[in-house]
Amino acid sequence: MSSLTARSFRLQSLRQLIKPNSFKRDHSTSIVTSTVSNDNGRLRIEEEKYADIYSSSIQQPYKDVLESLAKRTENEFSNANMMITSLQGKLMCQLIKLFRPRNVLEIGGFTGYSAIAMGSGLPSKAKLTSLELNEKHAKMAEEYIRLAKLQNKIEIKVGPASER
Ligand SMILES: C[S@@+](CC[C@H](N)C(=O)[O-])C[C@H]1O[C@@H](n2cnc3c(N)ncnc32)[C@H](O)[C@@H]1O
């Protein structure tokens, strides 16, 4: 195949991928020729679709707790853009459900979004430890972990991760 033909084949494949409802299970990111970012420049759009379609929704009461935590983080922290997106949370929860780890170590918990998203999918006896440098971040994380009734599964340790 000439390089021109190969390029138009890849472009066609890309167009197929980004058409609504045309996503195929055998999707390979290797045919994605360029990075197509969403408005936050985070996960590539094709990967977002994949994550969305093949991840189950975060269950209640965790979903509501996460929504409320995200709103409060956005209102109270000027650096709220550090928080993962709801889709990233959904994907992390799905990965936890797939791998069923007994222990999870998170470095940099911020206000607890990812910890709660992962915690919501943890098997019953599993534990997640989240290391967070900033006391104010950790305090909010702890508040929402309690609201989500995940305090027996998630522990926040405050201080520099390198000292743990
Ligand atoms: C990008 S945010 C993490 C986002 C978070 N996982 C979430 O779901 O919202 C990075 C966090 O790492 C923390 N951090 C930075 N340096 C650290 C260190 N040395 N030890 C522990 N936490 C640290 C910051 O205070 C910040 O809250």
UniProtKB/TrEMBL annotation:
SUPFAM superfamilies: S-adenosyl-L-methionine-dependent methyltransferases. InterPro entries: SAM-dependent_MTases_sf, SAM_O-MeTrfase. GO terms for molecular function: catechol O-methyltransferase activity. Its EC number is 2.1.1.6. PROSITE patterns: SAM_OMT_I (PS51682). Pfam families: Methyltransf_3. It comes from the Eukaryota. Belongs to the class I-like SAM-binding methyltransferase superfamily. Cation-dependent O-methyltransferase family. This is catechol O-methyltransferase. It comes from Rhizopus delemar.
